[in-house]
Amino acid sequence: MAKQTVLAKKRRGPAPTGKGVQVVVRLQPDHLNALDNWIAKQDASLTRAEAMRAMLAMGTKAPRGSLLPRKTERHAQDEKTGKRKP
C-alpha cells in the first residue's frame, strides 16, 4: 500500500499577533476628530488603537467620579422604584 501524506489545513486570514480580547468600537465623527487631534498633539506617532489604549490607561488612573458622565434628568432613574422617569 502506498504511503499517504497528510497536509495541514491552511487557516484563513493573517496569523494571530497577540492575545487578548478584541473590542470593536464605532466612533461618531466628532469623537473621531477629537481622537485624531489628540494623536496630533502627542510627541510620538500613534495609531488610533495605540492612542485609545494610552487614553484608557490615563483614564483608569483618574478619580472614579471623573470618568463617569453625569446623569441627565431624562436618563435618571427613580431611586425607589429603579424605573426610568418618563
Explain this structure.
The longest helix has 13 residues, at 29-41. The mean pLDDT is 77. The chain is 35% helix and 0% strand. The protein has helices at 29-41, 48-60, 64-67. The chain is mainly α and 86 residues long. It has a domain at 29-62.
User: With helices defined by DSSP (H or I, 4 residues minimum), what is the helix count?
Assistant: 3
* Shape estimate: elongated
How large, in whole angstroms, is the Cα Rg? 23 Å
Residues in helix, %: 25-40%
Number of strands: 0
Beta-strand share of residues: under 5%
Q: Tell me the series of helices and strands, N- to C-terminal.
A: HHH
Computed structural class: mainly alpha
Instruction: Summarize the biggest pleated sheet.
Output: none
Mean pLDDT over the residues: 77
Uncertain runs: none
Distance, first to last CA: 79 Å
List its salient traits:
86 residues, mainly alpha, 3 helices, 35% helix, 0% strand
Summary of the model, kept short:
The protein is 35% helix and 0% strand. The protein has 86 residues and is mostly helical.
SSE layout and pairing:
Blueprint: H1 29-41, H2 48-60, H3 64-67
